[in-house]
Structures are given as C-alpha cells and as structure tokens.
C-alpha cells in the first residue's frame, strides 16, 4: 500500500511521486528529502498510533521522531518483498510504544492518569491542511476495520485490544480479568481469525 | 516482533499446549514436531512471554504451515493501527527530527575528516554565549524516549538545535574555511619563523635572487637568499609537483665549468630548502643551475661530467642574463 502523497513539505515533484520502497532506499543512501516525503506521508498515522498506545502527546512525538530516525538509519534493511513500508514502519512504532508503556508500568503511576482514548480525543483532529485524498482513504479504511472489530464478541475484542494497544501479555490479561490463560489464548485466536475473515482483501492490500 | 524478545529457544524447558491437544503439554523441543496454532495470535499481537516467542521463532523456521499462519495473523494485526483516528503531530516535531538527522550527518562527515581537523569541527571554538548550548543539545544516536524530565530537556534541546540549523551550518562552513585559512597562515608563520631563524646569522644586507623556471620544469620556482657576505645563503625551491621526495643539486658556473656546491631535498609537496656555503662571493659566478640529482642503477649519484654533457632535467637557472651579483 502507498497512501496518496501530500505535499506539505514542499518536496521535489519527482520524489513526491516516488514509491515508498524507492524513497526509503534513497533515504538510506543519505537523501534527506526522500525521508521528508515519507514523513509527510506517514507521520500522521505513526503519531496517532503511538499516541493511542502511550497516551502522552510529547512522548508520542518523541516516538514519532525515533521511528523515522530508525527508518532512516535502518532503511537498508527494509525489503519490499516482505511487506509494505507502512507495515514495517508501524511495527517499529508498535515495538517502541509498547516498550515505553511496559517501562512506565514498572514505575509508579499518577493517580489521575487518563485513558488513551481521552488523550486522543483531546488532540485536535488533522483537520484543514491535510490531504483530502488521504483523509478519505484513511477514513474508509478506519471504518472498515472498525466494523470488522465491532462484529467480534466483546470478550474477544477486549483481549485483542488489551494485548495490542496496552502491551499486556496473555498471562497479564488472564490475571487482570481473572480468566484462565487458555481462555485468553482462545479468545485471541478466534478473534483474530474472525477479523482476518472480515477484512479479507483489505489486509492483503496493506501487506 | 522477535527483536524485542530475543531469547534463544534451545535451552527452553517450558511447556506449551498445542492446539487440538487439550490437557497435553509439550516442551519447546517437542513443539518442533507439532504446530503452534495456539501461540500464533499471541505472537502477532506481541502478547507472548519471551520464552514462548522464542519457541515460535524456532518452530516457524522449520514449519511452512505455521509460518504461513503467522504471516496471515501479522497481516491482520498490521491493520489495527489504522483503526486510530488521525491526529497531526506538532510542526516542530518534523524540524526536530531533521535537525537530528542533519546533526548525525555532520558528525559522520566530521568523522571522515583528518583527526585534528575533525576535532576542531566537532568542538568549534565559538563564544559560549553563541554556540555552547547548541553543542550541549547534541543528541545521542539511537536513544529512545526516556523519563519526563530528560525527555523535556531533550525536546527543548532539539528545538533549539532545529531552529539553529541554518546558523550552525553557516558557522560550520565558515568555520571550516577559517580553519583552512588558519592552517595556511600557521604554515606560513612557521616558515617565516624558520626563515627568520635562518637569516639571523646574516644580519642585515641579505639579497634575494629569484630562480627562473627552466624548460623541463616550467612550473618550478625558487630563490637563493644570500647573506651580507655573499658566501652564506639559503636555497629554497618549490617544484610544484607531488612526485615525492627528490634530491636536487645546486651547480655554479664559472667559465663554463659547473661545480656542485649544495644539495636540497624536496618533500612530498615538492618544497625544500637548504643552506649553502660558497667558496667565492655569489656575484663572482656566471650563473647557477639546479638539477635533479639522478641516481644510476648501482645506486651511485651521477657524475658531474655527465651533467655537463647533458643539460636535460634542468630545474631552473638564474641564467647568464640575470643580475646575480652586486
């Protein structure tokens, strides 16, 4: 998948039209403008995802920087044959974000910590200035995934969300919910299978 | 995903339940014989314990069925980030990122310079009020988000760095030119000091005689500086060639007879100087010549009579028409 390109950064037209794989290749060779085009394309997705997990705007922006910095440094390791660039980028985002919340979990938490959804809601929407085509495409994708997730039994959806967005292990979820470990594993397996069936070709487009 | 849970499975003795084998448990080594369906979803969601993750990693390397199942699960999980409503990061985040990229590139460039010069580039001697805080704000490559206080400090540092990138680039560029100029001036100062030292013996009344480039070395230049006694002097030549160290001899011409009176060896840059001591006052000679000192295969210096018969290879000469004497 390659999202439609936006031109917020005033990058050269030839780079704006380039594919993600070409751009990350150029960026890995030291072409900072190629990295800039990728940033303009995907910074919103990466930032929103990180913010959803860590529920801390400054921290999410730190992670956003770190994700693109690592992409720039490790771009030579990216292989288009193994998946899309955005999937690779988001897996880096997920790893960094989960590492961060697990690190924070080991430290005392403030009593008034807000839920990620509340934090996310408080951050202004992308709004004016974002590429309209991007917005439409992302909106449609979000709707598709949201509908697929809504079709899952609540217990299965909960297990998936606790694992993926809160960085909890199956054992931690089991302890938290007071359910047997095997039950949590089954919920995850069945939930993911249904999600895959519901999303079908959309999942294939992203990979 | 495995990069965050990098434990080797070979010594793992934990037990796992294989899908469809309720109540039965197996070790990681036994798992290689079965499948890991039960763990695939947890793996894709990043919800396994490190030992379980390692066991899956080991299993899928030898099991195409589970490898395929895992790829499917990861593809599905890979769509979950798009569930999140889009939010826009602050504009300064981008500037800070690219300031960091520029900083690392500059550091890499500086690392490629000669050590002495690179050290000066890395620690420019700017007034503290002008630039020290920029150096202090330099990032540690590969660092991840830390605690709140250090993070805030880092963000502030990066912001300052980002806003100062054009100024810093200008300072580095002009600083680099300045360093080059300073090196040249330093070299010239050293040469001047050396000359002053050499001339200290001559007191006043020194005379300089420029050497005219010869046909075989049109790019060469040099001079002979004689002291007041016109017998002691200094020969300086620059052959403007980087052919490596090479010796030249100074010949004086008296009634057509050439006599070697000194030798000078040029360095890698083609420059050299040597003291000379003449039997007669410099002005008594008809001319002086400088020639490359050739060496024959036996290793002996070429004989003077050879030079007399063959004028090729002349570096330069004051020439008979030059004013060489008082």
Notable traits:
heterodimer; A: about 210 residues; mainly alpha; Rna Polymerase Sigma Factor, Chain: A; Arc Repressor Mutant, subunit A; 2 domains; disordered N terminus; B: about 325 residues; alpha+beta; Immunoglobulin-like; two-stranded antiparallel ribbon; 10 helices; about 20% strand; elongated; disordered C terminus
Q: Give, in spatial order, the strands making up the sheet with the most strands of chain B.
A: 7-6-9-10-3-4-5-8
CATH third-level topology of the largest domain in chain B: Immunoglobulin-like
The CATH topology of the largest domain in chain A is given as Rna Polymerase Sigma Factor, Chain: A
CATH architecture designation of the largest domain in chain B: Sandwich
In whole angstroms, the N-to-C terminal distance of chain A is 7 Å
Number of domains of chain B: 3
The end-to-end span of chain B amounts to: 89 Å
How large, in whole angstroms, is the Cα Rg of chain B?
38 Å
Helicity level of chain B, as a percent range? 40-55%
String of helices and strands of chain A = HHHHHHHHHHH
Low-confidence stretches of chain B: 1-30, 115-154, 296-326
Order of helices and strands of chain B: EEHHHHHHHHHEEEEEEEHE
Question: What is the β-strand count of chain B?
Answer: 10
What is the CATH C-level name of the largest domain in chain B? Mainly Beta
In short:
The complex is a heterodimer of chains A (207) and B (326). Chain A is an all-alpha fold and 207 residues long.
Describe, in plain words, how this protein is organized in 3D:
The complex is a heterodimer of chains A (207) and B (326). Chain A is mainly α and 207 residues long. Chain A has helices spanning 13-16, 20-28, 32-54, 57-74, 85-105, 116-122, 132-150, 154-164, 170-177, 181-199, 201-206. Chain A has two domains: 1-129, RNA polymerase sigma factor, region 2, helix turn helix motif (Rna Polymerase Sigma Factor, Chain: A), CATH 1.10.1740.10; 131-207, Winged helix-like DNA-binding domain superfamily/Winged helix DNA-binding domain (Arc Repressor Mutant, subunit A), CATH 1.10.10.10. Chain A is 70% helix and 0% strand. In chain A, helix 3 crosses helix 6 (116-122), helix 4 packs across helix 5 (85-105) and helix 8 (154-164) packs across helix 10. In chain B, the strands form two sheets. An eight-stranded antiparallel beta sheet of chain B has the order 7-6-9-10-3-4-5-8, with no helix packed on it. In chain B, helix 2 packs parallel to helix 4 (64-77) and helix 5 (91-111) crosses helix 8. Residues 1-30, 115-154 and 296-326 of chain B have low confidence and may be disordered. At the A-B interface, helix 3, helix 4, helix 5, helix 7 and helix 8 of A face helix 2, helix 4, helix 5 and helix 8 of B.
